[in-house]
Design brief:
The chain is mainly alpha-helical and 315 residues long. The chain has one domain. Helices cover 70% and strands 0% of the residues. It contains 13 helices and no strands. It is globular and about 65 Å long.
Length: 315
């Protein structure tokens, strides 16, 4: 329990340090770029406060989830428009738009949205987190957690992993080249693998719940309760892994533009990897309690990437 609390506090501190580091490390923008960046911070602040207040009023704390796939589209096109449609930035924005439309669709078919925008399916893990960490049952402490971690941190993370597009504008020394098209191909490839993984999981969960509803016998993965076939036999979280690779690849555009392997915008994808790792660990701790065979699955299949070493069906 204390370990989880420590991690949450540590994550917030790393986020704050990362933001300050980003601002002071080679953060030299011209006039229009600086004004655009300042205005983008207003968008970030507005979205953060919107998620916080809606969450507090409705007691549905998955408001950030609703705009996770939408906010990046807003950010990248905002920078692209003010750059007067720099071609590399148009390409980057187009790819993010494809990613965002696909992910928004996936979230919507799982009842993530409602005709009443403040409603929709809430992330089940928030209730479990409250149960595991009793201090979060305090109204004021949970509101503080909602403001700092759920809204400020996660919305800030979204903002940060979009910023390679600003670096591509800020330090462009190369026109668009074959390297950019290779990067674009890789990004599309990872969007496709994420789509396949999400579809496999969605089909499995839909079929499982349909069988349960119709009182049909469960066998194979349905009996175990979780999917371990398709891409899921190579990775316990192929969708999470693809998501991380999408944004690591997005960072590569800034390298192509500046000819520098490391720049301040790398902070976003690093923090994203840290978030997904710990999110996956928390999700798996829940799965282990629900499904007896999940521990064996963990022993045989890597968290993010690799090949099956042992038979994951053994129970």
């Amino acid at each position: 329990m204390l370990k989880k609390v420590f991690f949450l506090i540590f994550s917030l501190l790393i986020f704050i340090i990362a933001v300050r580091f980003s601002i002071f490390f080679e953060f030299q923008l011209n006039g229009i770029q600086l004004d655009t960046f300042k205005n983008s911070l207003i968008i970030y602040s507005a979205l953060t406060l919107l998620c916080f207040f809606i969450g507090e009023l409705t007691k549905n704390y998955s408001q950030v989830d609703k705009i996770w796939s939408i906010a990046p589209i807003i950010y990248v096109w905002f920078f692209t428009i003010y750059s007067e449609f720099n071609f590399r930035m148009v390409l980057m924005s187009f790819l993010v738009t494809i990613w965002g439309i696909r992910l928004t669709y996936n979230f919507s078919r799982k009842n993530g949205y409602s005709i009443y925008f403040w409603k929709g399916e809430e992330d089940y893990r928030w209730k479990i987190l409250k149960h595991r960490i009793p201090i979060f049952n305090s109204k004021h402490i949970w509101s503080l957690f909602n403001l700092t971690f759920i809204c400020f941190y996660q919305m800030g993370l979204i903002f940060l992993f979009c910023l390679p597009i600003l670096v591509a504008w800020q330090g462009e020394v190369n026109p668009i080249s074959i390297y950019d098209w290779i990067i674009a191909f890789l990004m599309i490839l990872f969007i496709i693998t994420e789509s396949i993984a999400d579809n496999q999981q969605y089909d499995f969960q839909s079929s499982k719940h349909k069988k349960i509803k119709n009182n049909k016998p469960l066998d194979g993965d349905f009996k175990k309760g979780f999917i371990s076939t398709g891409l899921w036999k190579f990775s316990r979280h192929p969708n999470f892994f693809s998501e991380q690779l999408i944004w690591v690849t997005f960072y590569l555009f800034s390298i192509s533009a500046t000819e520098k392997f490391f720049n301040w915008s790398i902070i976003g994808c690093i923090l994203l990897i840290i978030l997904f790792y710990n999110s996956a660990k928390f999700t798996e701790s829940i799965s282990e309690q629900k499904y007896p065979s999940y521990k064996t699955y963990k022993e045989n299949v890597p968290m993010f990437i690799g090949f099956k070493i042992k038979n994951p069906t053994r129970s």
